[in-house]
Amino acid sequence: xxxxxxxxxxxxxxxxxxxxxxxxxxxxxxxxxxxxxxxxxxxxxxxxxxxxxxxxxxxxxxxxxxxxxxxxxxxxxxxxxxxxxxxxxxxxxxxxxxxxxxxxxxxxxxxxxxxxxxxxxxxxxxxxxxxxxxxxxxxxxxxxxxxxxxxxxxxxxxxxxxxxxxxxxxxxxxxxxxxxxxxxxxxxxxxxxxxxxxxxxxxxxxxxxxxxxxxxxxxxxxxxxxxxxxxxxxxxxxxxxxxxxxxxxxxxxxxxxxxxxxxxxxxxxxxxxxxxxxxxxxxxxxxxxxxxxxxxxxxxxxxxxxxxxxxxxxxxxxxxxxxxxxxxxxxxxxxxxxxxxxxxxxxxxxxxxxxxxxxxxxxxxxxxxxxxxxxxxxxxxxxxxxxxxxxxxxxxxxxxxxxxxxxxxxxxxxxxxxxxxxxxxxxxxxxxxxxxxxxxxxxxxxxxxxxxxxxxxxxxxxxxxxxxxxxxxxxxx
Length: 477
Description:
Blueprint: E1 10-19, E2 23-33, E3 41-43, E4 52-55, E5 60-70, E6 75-79, E7 82-86, E8 94-99, H1 113-116, H2 118-129, E9 134-137, H3 152-159, H4 162-167, H5 172-190, H6 193-201, E10 204-206, H7 222-225, H8 228-246, E11 264-268, E12 271-275, H9 290-303, E13 308-312, H10 323-329, H11 339-344, H12 352-367, E14 372-377, E15 384-390, E16 393-399, H13 410-420, E17 424-427, E18 430-435, E19 449-456, E20 459-466, E21 470-471, E22 475-476
Parallel strand pairs: 8-9, 9-10, 12-13, 13-14, 14-16
Antiparallel strand pairs: 1-2, 2-5, 3-6, 4-5, 6-7, 8-19, 11-12, 15-16, 15-18, 17-18, 19-20, 20-21, 20-22
Helix pairs in contact: 2-6, 5-8
């Protein structure tokens, strides 16, 4: 029976579920008032699809549709009386956009939307010029830091000493305030016109980072990390990440175990995308627990030996040794606010053993399986690239950050660049070299940015769109 066609409060938001030579598998999420019956989704080929309810936040419901589109030059689906074209054929030429850091720590809601979303408009225009097949999000899709203003007790927790934070309770009123903030923040962002246009037409793959929870999650002292308030905030953020960044139901998290990782591994014709969860199990001295490493290695194994492996590492997998930089920050005015960002990095002294394990895992794909490996990262609010050399080829690290976050001072970019010129060899015989973007002089570029990765035939290339400098030259990877 035909359903009414209400206008969603937010969405549709498309999520990629993988593709074959015949079909592109997708999910679509919308938000409706609870009194409205959800419409069926009509793929261009096949039966109408009814949704399932993911979440019931008060007077609204989050609905999710699972469906597939046929591989053809332009497929489409209809929802709520509107037709949405989707580039469903990933068997030949492919265009992939990568973004990260969609916001800022405070005052994001007060920014003028035209200035805030300048690069999203550029992405919109690029999609209209030549459609994207995938939109990869490398972390900090929302900046949830102001969740600590959602309740007076949370404000007090933010200002308290670590021991006082550990003693503060987490109750139902705090959970309600946190969940209300997160739901409203996601819906607000998904109704920004530039984001909404792309989200409805380009399938996304998303992996979270610290600001999707709150700044520095996992890098704070254990007494803070393990406090009831911090764990309550994490649980709320995790639920809404599952809903709005993965198109899935929230899952319960046991209090006495490491949270299950939320990584993904998706197969597409000729390439695979793997997105390990580098936040759920993070501690000051750990990036992933053994269950996280097992999940990551299992996702890689399931992808098989596709010609190219794209890895979403929310923090860059290649970069300079950071112990000296941490000391330099002590004397640079304003540098202290970047210290927790440094502790988040693979290159931090606390994570060097795991950094080696991560790189060894990727090198095995390159050297043993003959698979080209490209790592895509954000987080640092700068654009750069790196190479790890191997007799079997080059592992490329591409960094685009951020699409909406203001860039840090150019002095910070130069400081990192000077350190990066010294070089680094985390694995014997495999030197890391950080390099400028094509056409740029400094290793790190302090401009808002995104990048576009393209496959033509069997060749892959990348170019960055810099807010001030425009497009870089194209680089083969």
